[in-house]
Amino acid sequence: SAATANIANYAAVAGSATSAATAITADTAAYSTLSGTASSAASVSDYSITSTKIATSAVTDDKIDLIYSANKVSAEAIMPGIFGTGPGSKYTFYNNVGIGTNDANALLHVYSGVSGSYVKLQGSGDTYNYSGLQLWSANRSWELLHTQLAGETNYFAVQEYDGSNYNKRLIIQPGGNVGIGTTDATSRLTVAGTIELTSGGIKYPDGTIQTSASQSGNILTVEAGRGLSKTESGNITTLEAVVDNSTLTIESNALKIKPRGITSFEIATRAITEGAIAASNAPEENWYLRWSGSALNWSAVSGGGSGSAEPDNITLRRNSYGSLEVMPLGITSAYIAGNAITAAKLAPSSVTNESLASGTFSNITGVGTLDSLSVSGSLRASAEVIYPQSETNNVSAAPGITAAMLNKKLIRIQGNGEAVIVTANPQIAAGQDGQVIILRGTSDTNTVKFNDGNGISLSSKVSFTLGNGDTLMLFYDSAAGTWFELNRNDN
User: Fold this and answer.
1) What is the spatial distance between Cα 204 and Cα 195, in angstroms, rounded to a whole number?
2) Cys bridge to 287: 9, 25, 283, 347, which one at CB 3.0-4.6 A?
C-alpha cells in the first residue's frame, strides 16, 4: 500500500509511475532498497540507491528541488561536508558558484546584501600559519598572503612563485612599515634596490618638491635656517652652517667671512695653486700686491704708467720667482740721492754690518742710533760724540753693577738706600771685549765703594768710593774677564 500510495514520489527515482510500481513489486527481495515488507514499503535502506541504480537523466535539478522543498531530503544529505558541520569531501563545480546570489556571473560570486562585507580566510597552526589568495598559471603564481612563522611577527605579503622558489616581493609589517625587496622594513618605506622616478618628484614635509638630485642654475642667496635658493627653478636645498664667529659668522641671514678670519692656519697645505686662481682674478700687467691695512689687494702702480723693467744684475736682479730684488751689496752711496735714506724709512734692524759694503772708509754721514753701532774698521767723528746718560741705578752690595745697567756708557749710580760697599763677585757684570763705561756717583750719602779684586783691577789697587759727581772710567778685557781702571775723578 505504501508503494502504491507513493508511486508518484518514487517516479523521481525510477522514471514513470508504472515502471516504478513494477520494479518495486517484482524485485522486492533483490533490491535492498526497501525496508520492512513489500506491502508496507516503509522506507529505503541506507546507501541502497547508487549511481548504477539511477536511470540516465532520472535525477534533475527540478526533481531534487521538489524533494528538498517537500522536506523529503536535507541539504546535508545532498552535499555532506559543505553543508555539514564537520570535515567533508572535496567537490568540483563546473559552473559558476554563487553565495548569497542566484545570479552568479563569475566562477565564484559572493554577495552579502549589506555594506562592509568581506571574505574571511583563516588558517590554523602554531608552527606555520598562513592564509591567502593564490593566482596560478603554468607552474607560476602570485599570492596575496598573510603569514606567520613560529616566533615571527605576522605580516602581509605579495609573494611570487617562480617555479622553484617562493619570493616575497612586498611586505607590510604590523605598524605600517613597508618593505620592497626585503622582509626587514626598518623605516616607513625600506627598498632593497634602485628607485626610479619617471615623473613628478619627491615632496617634502614643507611642501617643496624636488624633481632632480642635480639642480640647475646659480645659487643666488644663502638664508640662515632656510639654505641655498635660486630663482630659476624655485627649488631650495638646505645648507646647515656651523660658524665659529672667528673665521665665519652670519650677518643679515648671510654667511660671511670675518675680517682677517682666514689665516695660514685655516688653509691646507697646497690648497691654493695657480690653477685654483681664476684667470679673471689675475691682476693687470702694471699692478702689484699691496697691504691696505686690513687685506692684501692688487693695486695699480703708484703714479700710473706701464712698461717693462730690466735688471742690470749689478744693483738689481731677477730672482727664481721672477721678481726683482736688490743685489747683495748692490746699493752704494753713488746710487743713493742726498737725504734719501732717513730713520723713518729704515725698518728696525734692517741695516746690519753685513749689509754695508766693505772698504777702508764708508761714506755714511749723519748716522744716529739709539742702540749699539758696531764698526769693523775705523770710526771718524767730525763732530761731537754724545753719550746719553742712564737713569740713576740703585746699587746693592750684591749683585753690584748688573748686566742690565751696562746698556749705557755713562752709568749713574747710588747706594740702595744707604752707603754700600760692593762685595759681589764679580763686582761688575761681564761686558763686551773692549767696552768702555763711566760710573758716576749721584749721592754723597748713599755712596758706592769698589775694592780691588773680584773682577775689577783698580789703579795701584786702591779702593775708590763714588759720591755725588765722582767718576770712575773702566774698560773690559774679555780674555782676563776683568774691568781695568782708565781714570778716576774724585770731586
Assistant:
1) 17
2) 283
